[in-house]
Amino acid sequence: MNFVNELKWRGMIHTMMPGTEELLSEGMVTAYLGIDPTADSLHIGHLCGVMILRHFQRCGHKPLALVGGATGMIGDPSGKSQERNLLDEKTLRHNQEAIKAQLAKFLDFESDVPNRAEMVNNYDWTKDVTFLDFAREIGKHITVNYMMAKESVQKRLNGEARDGLSFTEFTYQLLQGFDFLHLYTEKGCKLQLGGSDQWGNITTGTELIRRKVGGEAFALTCPLITKPDGTKFGKTEGGNVWLDPKRTSPYKFYQFWLNVSDEEAEKYLKIFTFLTQEEIAALVEEHAKDPGQRPMQKRLAKELTCMVHSEADYNAAVEASQILFSNKAADQLRAIDERTLLDIFEGVPRFTISREDLKAGVPILDLLAVKTAVFPSKGEARKMVQGNGVSLNKEKFTDPNGTVTEADLLDGKYLLLQRGKKNYYLLTAE
């Protein structure tokens, strides 16, 4: 498989330095991609870079995943409007291990093949370098004029940053260049991969390699992925969509991909799955015949949820998604965990009720119109119950004289009331 051709049809190349394609055609190449270690999980904004590393390895080349332990202590001005918080070494080491565990789902770190993936941390070769050594051995090779011309620096200096650009951040491109130089000399790494916002930092590295050791190195970047409205990809109202199930549940992760637009779905199938051109073309054709069935979104959500989490998590997410639309979902509702329950019914009106009251049993009409405001009056509640318009935990409640007890609680804590077809209310017993 040809790495560049594979990326081209998938729309995953933004800029490529001349000579890169020729280098890749000569045999196995070592390349690295830097990952920000400021959290102990990757989020879907990292996925494009991770997928490129996986394509790189599948094409017979050797990927290095660089965790920026040193540069994470500095902060990269690229694409940022303010300086990031700096991390201590203990936090960085913890984050590195967590990130490696996630990357292991995409990359082969364990086998003995020549192109086995490696994880490296730039803190390891930077921590013992003194400022004087760095200034003499690295700083003298790159002029301030060269550094000032970088777009990321210019944007921060021309008013995009509230507090300007610190010297610490200004040195970031030199540190990243030092990484490339180190990996070039120690591991024979001749190619750096990254997002298009990293082009300036990457080319500083190729320039440093040329000036310092007379070597030739190359760069390839992927486009930054944005939503159709131009906003940052991967962000929701609740923040990032994380790969760690403790941060973003598999249900929410699945729902994110299921709800992308048709335009996004076709693009994301190319970028975030390993489906072939023919398979994606068939999905596009199927979608055009019946868009309401959303075959592209369903396949996208399946591929990503299985790859990042597991097939079992995917199946659980599909079942959980059906709870909202099924009138026979009582058993499924009792089977899901608390986190998924809260995710499914996020944003619905919520009430708190007394657990003590439930021990004695609460008349359904009191629950609907006195203990909560699901109905404005007992009279309206009675009519709806008698008309089969009220459900408790996805089961019809038809007895206006019935009671609700602790035994009805979901997960020992919640009651789900439904008025009509679309109005849900989540009650918490305390």
List keywords for this structure.
21 helices, five-stranded mixed beta sheet, six-stranded mixed beta sheet, 15 strands, 430 residues, alpha/beta, single chain
Summarize the structure in words.
With 430 residues, this protein is α/β, with parallel strands linked by helices. Helices cover 45% and strands 14% of the residues. It has helices at 3-9, 20-25, 47-58, 89-103, 123-126, 131-137, 144-148, 151-160, 167-170, 172-187, 199-213, 250-258, 262-272, 277-289, 295-308, 311-323, 330-335, 338-344, 355-360, 364-369, 378-386; strands spanning 15-16, 30-35, 62-67, 118-121, 189-195, 218-222, 235-236, 239-240, 350-353, 362-363, 390-392, 395-396, 403-404, 414-419, 423-429. The strands form four sheets. The protein has a six-stranded mixed beta sheet, sandwiched between helices. The longest helix is centred in the middle third of the chain and has 16 residues, at 172-187. The chain is elongated and about 90 Å long. Mean pLDDT is 91; it is low at 79-83.
